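Our working data are protein records whose layout never changes between entries. An example says more than a description, so a record of this kind follows.
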Amino acid sequence: MLSKPYLGVLVGGALLSASIQAQDYLPVLQYHHVSNTTPRSTSVTPEEFAEHMGYLQSGGFQVVDLRSALDDLKANKPLPEKAVAITFDDAYSNIYQSGFPVLKANNFPFTVFVNSGPVERNSRSFLSWEQMKEMQAVGGVFANHTENHPYMLRKEATESDDAWFARMSQELDVVETALVDKLGNSPKMLAYPYGESNHRIRDMVKEKGLMAFGQQSGVISADSDFENLPRFPASGPYASLSTLKTKLNSKPMPLLSEDAGGDFATDQPVSIRLTFKDGQYRLKDLACYVSGQGKASLDWASDNDVVATASKPFGVGRGRINCTMPDRSGQQYYWYSNVWIRSAPEQGYVSEKS
């Protein structure tokens, strides 16, 4: 019989091993279409999707329920080693036709963000409530993507700021009601259409008790902004399995703070200030890349404080800076991304202060 002290060593060792294997961050994959005939920029082919899911299965990844994992991270509870979550935006019918059979065969949970307008209009291009119920029975979760998929920061002609804000609130409320009425519950999660939000929208989302996702890439941790969470796109130019492997092996950038100067870009090059937590990092290997421009310039204000600046202004639309840094082992990368909007007057965007 084992002595009590020896039993204590075994138990303590098992707990230590479990804590080493636990993961305090979560990469989330973002898909739209699973089809050969839809726009390539937002699509994976059925063959590519099967390849992605096969890699998750063979690579020992633990596909987790998204909302449960977010709750655990926020509460500083560990996730399984190699945890990952799978999401789809827009609730296209080809998810049911070409994605769902693969997810079901692998017993993978997943989340679909639904814009309910075309569903209610019985559009053949979108999932029906009955299909969602079938998917829900085997791990599918359905969340909010607004009713009509608007640019949430654009006002209609002659619309006041208050009227715009009320319309955006209604866009969310309609879907929350539909999810409860048609599917029995809402996971209280939102994906912003086009990934766009500002401080006022994010405050509203928080007041409604929702967690929300943008379209900046990165990894979620307890330090993340739970009203503007990152995901990794896995469609179109990002559908390559080799690219996906790098993202799945990423960790959240160890930041103490960040300052991007707001959500909107101007006619001047954007910059972002990143302040790193104390620790042993390979800061000399930090690299930041500007969409369409190449590397950003890095100006180190102190040992842990850097400003990354684009070489020229963004054009109209969305632009980003992605930063990566190898960890001490060189086996994984820390990852961070920020997105800015460069608006044109005719687009009707709200002001930075709205």
